[in-house]
Structures are given as structure tokens and as C-alpha cells.
């Protein structure tokens, strides 16, 4: 048998007993758990709302606290990685975002920054992200130069949508790109591309394609020969020219100009030496006949 | 006390209890000498008087009852069922009530209590009235009840229970509800039980100090009988012996009515005290010896079963280290026999042997001593059984032991009181000719 220890009296004190019985009243419990907190909350809100100094203090504290969090080193973005572009474009992009940084990751407006970066002509699309080491990563999709545009102001590189990517020093620098010439040529560069695709077999002869009066195209061949294309469906006309060339070797002959503007018939202007030559040959045949 | 005062006091008691019942939650507190029990009851007033499913008669009220909280604690400051230390009893009440409230998750304000002290004394009263209109009406019963000759039961005592046992109409006896029967002279046999006023006042004061309102009071002998006697035993006549800690209550029932109640001021605590003195051990160890190893009939095996007295309590200095179980039985048996002898004396004085049923049911904590049945049969001269309280809904398993008979019986008494008759109006001329009230009643009844 275990020794019997004198135990503490389990009786609740009179105060504890009264309080516990009071607590069992629904009204009392409701008053303490619902009405008392509600009253305290209402009083607190009223106390704050009624005194401007309290409001100002709260606003100031809030601002300070917010500023503290925002400017915390953990959230500061100052490193930038630019991917998917050449060094010259990257320099332009860095120049664009230089005034914004360093900034907090919490307040940095990536959408606005993206629009700013996309102002750079060579950038077609930019994807911005901030990673866990607070590095701003800019993924660039660059515009590809599709043609060289010669106009009154000089030479420019343009992409396939006609967006000017930048000036070009000399035509010889990009011999791989076609040359489009004339005012209003750049926005229609895709049309020119289709025409050039159609005359692919003679592409070596082509020197450039000229926008005439901002409405139709001329193809300029070596030797300052011109092919005049109609306003509507110029690619069809180009294909007709190719067919003509294949059957008659038209472009091997001494011609100055092929006018394809009239769909019904092509008009060929002979070269300056060709006319006397033709007359001489005609005279010879007439003599033989005679 | 005059007859009218008896009428009024019984009616006030009934009204207080009914008011508590209407509140829904009532606490039952059994203030015993060795333990206090509190049951929190949820009473469904709608089911209380509901008709039975088969449409015959009404439910006993058990269906309306549900125990939602129960707790028991050791009681101190109570000797022979009476408060001797207000402070200690108050602490015990606080413990037991707050524990039961916590279990019930509700607050109770009204308490029905039972206690076992107060030296109950039974009186048989006889009342007579002429039937006014040929058929017995409620007012005739009221008149008969009001005409009972109240004996002089002495200063400092008050009536605890007063219940009609039997009605006689002319020469026909054995009626429990004579309303509607035709006859000329109505006689009522009433049982009245008085207790000393001081213990009741002390108990009331204890309740008041615990912020509880005492809405009803019953004697534990009566309550124990209600819960541990079966319906048949109650009807045919039986005695319930509630052997508690400090007192042993005796109640005799016939035709479901209490006809005699008494108490012997001895109980299990005296057995414990004998063991404590006999072996020189502490009361705690003595109690443990009694409950774990105690018995009343020794066999040869008990000589060999040695019980250790040391190493259990370093503060006592037992004269011997080991005792045999036979010695323990030898100390317990004379006291139990003494108690039962006293019970037999009281039963003989009440001429219990003249009753038709004559069953005896032992209940209360000390009725669990092994071998008590044999001894009691020998001393009381007839077959006895150990009674456990009736099951009531929600009663925890731990509270179904015989020592909770009084608490459970009090709950049964609460939902099925047998004192509806006090609701019957007594004719006004017996109260003293209050003409104005009579005029008012006539006015009320006519419109």
C-alpha cells in the first residue's frame, strides 16, 4: 500500500466558485466575449478618428514602416542581366533602365519598364523578371534586319515590318539584304519581299527595288534596267516576267525597260544601241530578200 | 402548528419545487455523512405529464428526466447526517456543485437536497370530512386533509413530509384517489414525518452561502426507498434500510406510500472507527481495510490471509504489523450486528411484521460489505436483498452503486411527487371565512 499523502483541498475558493457560476450565465459570457471587445474596438476607432494628431501619427508610422520594409536591402534590385541580344543593343537597354535602378523589388513597375525597353527599335519583345538573388533579368527578342532602306536621309536597316533598326554606313556592309528605295518603301517592305521571292532566279541581277510614288514598285536590275510592276498584284506580274524570261530569254537581251503595268501586254523598251542594230539587221534581211 | 399551517407549509413546499422544475435545470444534492453527491438534472416539462404510448395513464416522469452532470466528493463537517461545521460543508458543496455544473455545462440555481439526520419521527394522522355533494370532489379531499388532527410534535421540529396514505369512503377502504366516488363520509390516513429544525436551518444556510436556492428537501431514508424498491415491493409493503456513513435510514412503504421512517444513528463510519481504534491505525487506512478486505462471515481461509498494517502510513504507529482477515471481520461484525439489531427494534416498534409484503431491501454504501445479506437475514428474520438504485437516463455508470440510492431516489421524487393532493383547495370556511376571496373566486369562475 502506498503512503497516504495529505491532498490539497479540491474545493474552489468562494471567489472562483462565484466567478465560474457567473461565467455560466449566457448574458455575462456574451457581454465579455462579444460586447466588451466590440465596445473597446469602437472606442479605439473613435479615439483615432476624432483626433487629427492621432490620425497623422498613424499615417506617419505607417509610411515609415512601409518605407523601412521597401528599402530593406533584401528587396533592393541593382544587378541587371540582359540576355538574347548583341552588345550595342544591350548598351541601349542599359541606358534606358539606368535612371530607374537601384529600386526596391516591391515598387518596381516591370510593365512600365518593359514598355520603356521596347522603345528601343531593335527590341521586338522583352521579358522581365526578378529572381531570388534580386537580379533583374531581361530576356530580349531582337528584331532581325530584313532589308536595307535607302531614302533621302541615307541608309537604314529595317526589319520585316518596316521598323527602322538603325542607320547603316554603307550598302556594302550588308550585301546579304535586299535594298529597298524610296519614300514609303519601309512600311511595305513585306510586299517587296514577296516580289523578290517571286523573282528568285534572277536575284543576282537585282540591284534594288524602288517604291514609286508610294503606290507601286520598280525592280532595278544591273545596268540600270527597270522592270515596272503594277499597283495591284505585283507578285503576279513578277511571275509573268519570269515566265517571259524563261521562254524568250528576255533579260539576256539588250533592253532598257520592261513595263508590266498593263496586265494584258508587256511593253519592252529596247536599249539605246539595240534600235540601230535592229534596223541594220532588218535592212540586211530585206536586201537578201530583194 | 395548526392544521392550516401544515396545509400551507406543504403547499408552499410543493409550489417551490414546481417552480424549480419549470426552470428546466435542477440540481440534486445528497448531503451525506461520508460523501456528497450532486446530480444536475435536465427536466423536460412537456414530457413530465405526458401520456403513455399505449394511451393508458401517464408516464411516471422518468422520461422527462435526464442526468447531465454528476459528481461526488468526500464530505467533511457532517456528523450523523447533520451539519457540524458550516465552513467545511460549504467547501464540499462548492466542490461538488461546480464539478457537476462543469460536466453539465450549465448553471443551476435551484437545489433539491436530502439529508439523513434530524432524528425523523413518523406520525399517523386521521382526517375526516363530510362529502358535500354526494360525489367526492377535490375540495372534499382538501377538507379531509385540512381536518387532520396534528399532534404536538414538540418545539424545534418541523414537518418534512405529510402524505395521504389511504382514503376511506364510508366503509370502503384502500382508496388512493377517491375523486368521483359516491359516499357520505371521507376519512384520510395521513403519514407525517417531522425532523429537527436546526439541521434543516443549517443546511439551508449552507446552500445560501453557496448562492443556491433550496427548493425542496427530503429525508434520505425516504429517497433511498423510492429508488431501490421495485414497484411491486412498494405496492405490497417493504422496508428499505439505507446503511449510510453516519446514519442508517429506515423507511417502510405500502401501496406506494411512505408509512414509516426512522433512522439509527450509526453507520459505516462507526465500523471504520472501530477498526481504527482496534488496530491503532489511521482512519484512512481503516477505511481502506474495511472497503478492500472487509467482510462479515469468517472462513478458515481468512485465518491465513494476513494484511499488512505498516508501510502504508508512516504517521501511525500500529501496535502490530500484521493482522489476519479474521481479526478484521471480528471487529467489523459486532458493530454491523449492532446496527441491524437497532434496525430490527425500530421495525418491530413500527409493527412491520404485520405488513403483507415484508420484504427488506438493504442499500447505501455499507450494504456492499460482503456477507451482509446473511447476517441481516439472520438478525432481521426474513429474506433480504441488496438494492441498487433504479436506472435513470443519463446516469453515469459510476453512480449506479447502492451508495447513490438516495440521490437517485431524490430525482425520482422530484419528477413524481406524491403530494398533488395539496393542490386541492381547502374549503374557505375552514380557513376562516374569507368572504372577499370567495366572492372573487365566484367572480373568476363565472366569467
From TrEMBL, chain A:
Record InterPro entries: Cell_div_FtsQ/DivIB_C (IPR005548), FtsQ (IPR026579), FtsQ_C_sf (IPR045335), POTRA (IPR034746)
Compartments, record wording: Cell inner membrane; Membrane
Domain POTRA: 75-143
Transmembrane segments: 31-51
A UniProt-annotated Pfam family: FtsQ_DivIB_C
Keywords: Cell cycle, Cell division, Cell inner membrane, Cell membrane, Membrane, Transmembrane, Transmembrane helix
GO biological-process terms attached to the record: cell septum assembly; FtsZ-dependent cytokinesis
GO CC term, one of those recorded: plasma membrane
Annotated membrane topology: Single-pass type II membrane protein
Function statement: Essential cell division protein.
Family to which this protein belongs: Belongs to the FtsQ/DivIB family. FtsQ subfamily.
Official protein name in the record: Cell division protein FtsQ
Biological source species: Rubricella aquisinus
From TrEMBL, chain B:
Primary subcellular site in the record, as a coarse category: membrane
Keyword set, alphabetical order: Cell cycle, Cell division, Cell membrane, Membrane
Top-level lineage group: Bacteria
Compartment(s): Cell membrane
InterPro entries reported in the protein's UniProt record: ATPase_NBD (IPR043129), Cell_div_FtsA (IPR020823), FtsA/MreB (IPR050696), Heat_shock_70_CS (IPR018181), SHS2_FtsA (IPR003494)
Known function: Cell division protein that is involved in the assembly of the Z ring. May serve as a membrane anchor for the Z ring.
Identification of the protein by name: Cell division protein FtsA
Protein species of origin: Rubricella aquisinus
